[in-house]
């Protein structure tokens, strides 16, 4: 529903500013607790500013009446993801405390199952909220992939980069932008990515099981994306065939029209 006055618009924008403020507060707490270096601070601040700017622009375009309770949960999760991102950036200089890293990531993953339920329970589901939730998920997977790649190798980043590669490919092949049918398997694989990557990145497992967990996550994600791409390709071929049949039928009827008109 569109905004009725500037007060509502200002209030919605204030919520994104509060989110950025909470992000900076979390960075300050992390910095005090572990003595976070410049890389962690700069990355965390960049994440806070980018989240505020992108979300504010999206809200300005969609113009919702209110920010909504589900989006507040997602914004809180984004704040935690910003903290995880800062810890991963700082890990290039010093290893982050395992308990802190696992704790922040685990809470962010748990909250992933909360915002959707809140949206449905309050009747506040929106395309913006769904996209916000998806982008936070995708970025957390990317960050965990980068962190894990330092111990297992760059191949792990295929997990975090696969969704972004799909988005880039959709700019070249527009048929990839078509909506997909609901799939429990797709949702399950997506949910398992964070769990598997956190388990592998926690350091609780020996190298062999860690490698196996990450490889399983990549295999499942490759299967899920591959299945969706094949479905989209087949669907686009069917649609193209229908268009060609319509054009051929129109061409066949054209002489009949000319005969009648003459």
UniProtKB/TrEMBL annotation:
It comes from Streptomyces pseudovenezuelae. Keywords: Membrane, Transferase, Transmembrane, Transmembrane helix. Belongs to the CDP-alcohol phosphatidyltransferase class-I family. The chain crosses the membrane at residues 20-53, 128-149, 211-230. It comes from the Bacteria. This is Phosphatidylglycerophosphate synthase.
